[in-house]
From TrEMBL:
Domain of life: Bacteria
SUPFAM superfamilies referenced in this protein's UniProt entry, alphabetically: Nudix (SSF55811)
Name this polypeptide is given: NAD(+) diphosphatase
Listed cofactors: Zn(2+); Mg(2+)
Catalyzed chemical reaction(s): a 5'-end NAD(+)-phospho-ribonucleoside in mRNA + H2O = a 5'-end phospho-adenosine-phospho-ribonucleoside in mRNA + beta-nicotinamide D-ribonucleotide + 2 H(+)
GO biological-process terms attached to the record: NAD+ catabolic process; NADP+ catabolic process
Keywords of this entry: Hydrolase, Magnesium, Manganese, Metal-binding, NAD
Residue spans crossing the bilayer: none
PANTHER family per the UniProt record, alphabetical: NAD-CAPPED RNA HYDROLASE NUDT12 (PTHR42904:SF6), NUDIX HYDROLASE, NUDC SUBFAMILY (PTHR42904)
Family: Belongs to the Nudix hydrolase family. NudC subfamily.
Highest classification ranks of the organism: Bacteria, Bacillati, Actinomycetota, Actinomycetes, Pseudonocardiales
Record domain Nudix hydrolase: where: 180-309
Gene Ontology molecular-function annotations: metal ion binding; NADH pyrophosphatase activity
One GO CC term on file: cytosol
Amino acid sequence: MTGFELIGPPVLSRSAVLRDEPLRTDTARQVAGWPSAQLVVVDAEGRTPVVWDDEPDAGFLVGDAGSWDVGGGARLRTRPTTGDAPPPGAVLLGERDGVAYWAVRGKPDLAAGDDPAEWADLRMTGAVLDALGAGLFTTAVAALNWHDSAGFCSRDGSPMHPGNAGWHRHCEAAAHEEYPRTDPAVICLVHDGGSGPDARVLLARQPVWPQRRYSVLAGFVEAGESLEACVLREIHEEVGATVRDIRYLGSQSWPFPRSLMVGFHAVADPDVPLVPADGEIAEAFWATRADVRVALGEGDWAATTEAEFLLPGKVSIARSMIESWAAQ
């Protein structure tokens, strides 16, 4: 078998802040650091202001039709704090160089000079943010999404209130604590184990995706199931293939709304007919490494070329996996 590793970290796995758990319960230190802290303000649509070091290309500005990989550098535009202490619902993201970063829900403040056109979501900017911005934005979106859906106790329906600087919620009736949810999902690049330009990889398209958009296979881990068992089950359920030699590659958060994508690669026999699952997989096929390299050169799903097939953008761990396999 030809093995491989990721040639770089998945973009949403990067971070440059210290997640200091003791600080989450140190109210005095939180208050002392509040005047110099910075806020990551995220609106209800998951957007925050972004500063571009290089101008994004025109495709960035047209929403879902824009490119996920615009080739420029970007930084978050954080906001200074106000008041004497963190407000209820603020989430402590971490510290860097003595500066604490907090996440809050909000919207453009025109009086403070905010330009709504600068606000962008994580899907559009995650691949081009620096490590500080990528880690802050990913964590902010994940934590705030959880708070939005955790207003009531799962045991008795009582109101829940945030604590530990936003890292748990406690039940009003019984003080029961709940913590941010993360739903693990596997994503697996299935290949034939070969080498050279004729080696093959399995690509598939979901029915809701437009024509020519393909990726590798993924699925959620079920209760009581190991990650490797999930890989075996999901690949067989979705395309009828039986995989072997399952190897871990890497992981990244995917906070839409609260997933953790755990990446693997595995080997299957390309001569066994594929059986796409009705309603889940519209098409599946084996592509050569040479053809994948051509598709990667065309850009991503947003490309307007007449390429035979298009692959996900760099914000997705799928892109990291495919690029790493194609580079062998």
